[in-house]
Amino acid sequence: MERRFQRRSFAPIKPGEELDVKIEAVGAKGDGIAKVKGFVIFVPGAKEGENIKVRITKVFRKVGFAEIVGQGSAPEESEDHQEEQYEDQSEEEVVEESKEF
Description:
By secondary structure, the chain is mostly beta strands. Helices cover 8% and strands 34% of the residues. It has one helix at 91-98; strands at residues 18-22, 25-26, 32-36, 39-43, 51-59, 63-70. It has a 6-stranded mixed beta sheet. Strand 5 and strand 6 form a beta hairpin.
């Protein structure tokens, strides 16, 4: 019997973890996009180019979500964009959107 090995991908982040990140881009729904070890993190209310401290709120297999907790230049606009915007999309659709960056 042939044994197949599948590469498992584990997220390099955990819910509740606080990280310093740089927002590399802004997604189609207005959320900032940062990467940690190649792993995409959506940050509602963040602007491109910001260096901020975030707290991880949700982690999926290929993407995560975080909230701004301080440090650096805090965004001036409200954080009305939340993870709920993505709840009507499948994880694959969210991942496809993140591949644009």
